[in-house]
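help with these C-alpha cells:
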Amino acid sequence: MSLEDLDLIDHKILSQLDTDARISYSALGKKIRVAKETVKYRIQLLQKNGIIQGYYTVLNLSKLGYTIYRAYIRLQNTSPSIEQEIIDYLLKSKKVVVFYRVTGPFNLALGVLAHNTWEYEHFWLDLKKQFGEYFSDYHFSVFTEYLEFSRPYFLPSKEAVKNIFTTLKKAEMEKLDKLDLELLSFLSDNARASLVSIAKKLNTSVVTARHRLKNLINKKVIIGFRPIFNLRALGREYYKVDLWFKKFDHMEEVRQHIISHPDVAYTERSVIGSDLEFDIETKNFESFIATMDSFKEEFPNDIRDYSYYSLIKNYKMKYAPGL
C-alpha cells in the first residue's frame, strides 16, 4: 500500500490528523465535509492497516528544562540475541525518547533527554558498562533547536502551508507540579486519549483534567498532537541528512529553502556536528538524490557536502517517558 492507493478522503484525514491528532471525529468531518461515522471508520481502518501506528504529544522540551543529546552507535561482534538485549535496554530507558535502527556508518540513532551534560554522561556510562564491548564507534551532538513540520505531501497544493512544531528552542523553564507532569507523561504516547480517560488515569475530575490540559497548551508546553505514521505503508522512505556549508553568508536563506520543500519533515541545529541537519520523507532513493541535487544546484557556492542515513526501523518515539 502507498499514498497513491488511498482516496481523497483518506488524504484529507491524514493531513488534518498530522496537524492536530486530538481533533474530534465530528470536527474533522466538518472540516473535510464527510460524515462523523465515515471519519471514525476511515481512521480505524488506517490504524488497522498499520498506516497510523499511534499518537504522540509534541512537547516544548526546553520549557521542561531538557536538552536533546543525539548519539550514533556502530555495533560490532554482536549476535541477534545480544542486539535484542541492547534494543530492550534502550526501549526501557526513561532517557531515550527517539530510537531508530539505521543504515550508513552507524547502526543505531538515539535521541536522549537530559537536563545537563552530567546527566547525559551518567546515561552514557551506564550504557557502556552494559554493552560497550559491542560498540566499535559512536558520535554525539547536542541539539540547540529541533523543529517538526506538518506534511504537505499528504494533500499537495500550491496553497499548502507547513505548520511548525517547536520541540526544542531556547526558552524559560515552566514551573509544573506533579499532576502536570503526570498528565504530560500519560499524553506523551496517548495523544487522542479522552478527557475521561485522562481524568481516570490521574485520579482527578474531568473539569480539572480539562483545565490542566488547556493551561499546558496556553503555556506552550504542549505544542501539538500528532500521529506516528508507518512510512513504508505510505510508500515513503526516510533519510536523515547532515549538511556542511562552503560559505556561511547565505546560511539562513539555504535553510529556509530546504525547510520549504514538501518532503522535509524535521530540521535540527546542533553543537558538535554538521552545519545543518534535516529529515526527508520521500518516495524512493532516486527521489531523495534528485531533491539533494536540486538543493546543490540552487546554492552551488554555499553547500560543500552532505552525508545521510536511511531508516530501517523506528523503535521508539515518546517525548516524555521519564516524567
Remarks:
- The chain has a mean pLDDT of 92.
